[in-house]
Structures are given as structure tokens and as C-alpha cells.
Design brief:
This protein is 35% helix and 24% strand. With 162 residues, it is an alpha+beta fold. A five-stranded mixed sheet has the order 1-2-3-4-5, sandwiched between helices. Strand 3 and strand 4 form a beta hairpin. The longest helix has 15 residues. The chain starts with a strand and ends in a 6-residue tail after the last helix.
Length: 162
Amino acid sequence: MLKPVIRRGRKGDSVEFLKLLGKLAEFERLEPPSEEGMKRITMDIFEDRKLGLFVAVVGKKLVGYALYFYSYSSFLAKPTLYLEDIFVLREHRRKGIGLALFRACAAEAIRQGCGRIEWAVLRWNKKAIRFYEKIGAARLDEWAHYRLTVKEAERVCGLRKA
């Protein structure tokens, strides 16, 4: 078996990355990004640098990725690396690739002077929860995550009727 290589994503990876993103959407039982969404995420990663991307490559094939961005902790007065996605194709799981991708993100957080790394995990994804707890991550039960869609934000701003 070829050893996986973890490296930063390159613009030439965009087609394979988008296929992996579609596989993640399938796994999470979500709709994949629209055509416009795929164009935006590609631009945000490879041109505007709003997002960071690490990829796992076996041979010449992308088999996993970690997508991240930075937020900020006012109380730590330091950036936070927020891990948006970490995904490995089913046939390449349980081979240390997910851990290697996570370590790449952790090393990046250290390099960037972050005070912490945060992410969310679906409650039904028990394997991921076990993985995170095994590496020492703490579940933040005292925090409730909320989400407001753009349509709801428009309503809050008075730009749309309820």
C-alpha cells in the first residue's frame, strides 16, 4: 500500500476536491454545493485565500481533505483555527489519514499562533466523536450552536417580510 502524502491543496486539485466535497455531502445526507457554490468555494480557497485546504494523496489520487478558516477569540486575544470539514473516502479510512489531516491542521494552528482549534460534529457520527475524544478533544456541552440563514438575516434587517 502506498503511504498517503498530506500537503496543501493546489489549484490543480480543485476538480478532485469538489468530488470529495460531494462525497462528504452524501455522507452527511446534505445537498452538495450548487454549480455557483462550487465556483465560489474554489475561488475562496485557491484565489482569495479565505479558506485553507490540506489534502491527502495516495498515488496520484486525492482521498481526503481538511478545510479550515480562522475566527477570533476575544478572551484569548488570539485567532482560532476552525476546522470546517475533515473527510476521507470510505475505502481509505482507518489507515491514519484522518489523524494525519488533523495533525496538519493542528500544526498550522500552532504556526499561526492560534489559541485553539474548534469544529462541530454531527451527533449521529459516533465514529468521529470517538476519534475526537480519543485525541483528547473536549465536547462543549455548555455551548449551544445557532445558525441564521441569509434569508433569515434579511428578515432581521427588515429586507424581507416574515
